[in-house]
Amino acid sequence: MTHSPPAARAADSMSATWNPTTLDDARAAVAAVYGHDGTVKRLSSERDETFLFTREDGTPFVLKIANPAEDPAALQFQDGALLHLEAAAPAVPVPRLVPTRAGAPSHTLATADGPRIMRLLTFLPGELQYRTPPGEKQSRNVGRALAELGLGLEGYDGRPPAGKLMWDISHTLDLVAVAGHVAPERQAATGAVLAEFERALPALAALPRRQIIHNDFNPHNILLDPAEPSKVVGIIDFGDMVHAPLVNDLAVGLSYHLATDDWAARASAFLEGFLSARPLAPEEIAVLPLLLRARLTMSVVIAEWRSALFPENRDYIMRNHATSWRGLQNISDLTPAGLKRLVPNLSEA
């Protein structure tokens, strides 16, 4: 079987350059398009320009100005998901799109670099999960929040733009083409997962529940209450959404709870939280251990491949590599039966 190298769906937008928007221009754009005056502060962002806009009455918002290479269809897809959640699952804590003065969810700015899409969103206060002390109660609540988000997205009929997303577990075998970049001491483990994934293709293709999934439910995208750091108060970053098996979303979220000494307890709590809102089908349970290994293998392979391509950004690219590798080692022999030992009511939930 021949495999093509993985390609980010928005590869051009990730490498595009543009003239930065001045704070004065950003403020003027908000005033003209949304009718609000206030102050603007630039925030760090990887693929667009993001600002904290504080209205004159003190209300904070997030202003995002897409880079000129961004596919408008991708942003429309994200906007559609947020609007769907606002209508279908208002209790799910996600940002809300602020309509323009014309009642639109976004506005296209004419700039020297070409058209750039501007959006204003409500600001979600909270502490990012990765900055808080982990614990079983936190893992349980994060797992339930993921299930509730998935239930909210279940009826969303939007579809992502054509093309593959590099971080879509469904396309794990595309990594075969770049697996040679993995260090020799990790070749056997990552190669075994890729071979296991290929053998499981018929079972994966037969998974019955498919929908739009968040696909990036990680501790950098989950906000917790600073006064109660086990309580989820926000979910952000919908830029990696795909249409895929529902259980893939669980594999992504759970994969970030597997790298500590108490990984079994945290994984058990996460699954209990998820199952309290949404049970799994037997065929989903059967492939979940593999999907967890596949996600962790993706993190290892993509990091080593991309750090070889972009050595100047190695520290940033490799920031999650060590934890992904440790997680993969922790669950290298995890089976469906092992999952059921972690969560005895897994099949009955």
Automatic annotation (TrEMBL):
Enzyme category, top tier: transferase
One GO CC term on file: cytoplasm
SUPFAM superfamilies: Protein kinase-like (PK-like)
Listed transmembrane segments: none
Cellular localisation: Cytoplasm
A single MF term (Gene Ontology): hydroxylysine kinase activity
Reactions performed catalytically: (5R)-5-hydroxy-L-lysine + GTP = (5R)-5-phosphooxy-L-lysine + GDP + H(+)
Highest taxon, organism lineage: Bacteria
InterPro entries membership: Aminoglycoside_PTrfase, Kinase-like_dom_sf, Pseudomonas-type_ThrB
Coiled coil feature spans: none
Keywords, sorted A to Z: Cytoplasm, Kinase, Transferase
Database matches in Gene3D superfamilies: 3.90.1200.10
Aminoglycoside phosphotransferase domain: residues covered: 40-276
UniProt EC number: 2.7.1.81
Alphabetical list of Pfam families matching this protein: APH
The protein's role, per its UniProt record: Catalyzes the GTP-dependent phosphorylation of 5-hydroxy-L-lysine.
Protein name: Hydroxylysine kinase
Natural source organism: Shinella fusca
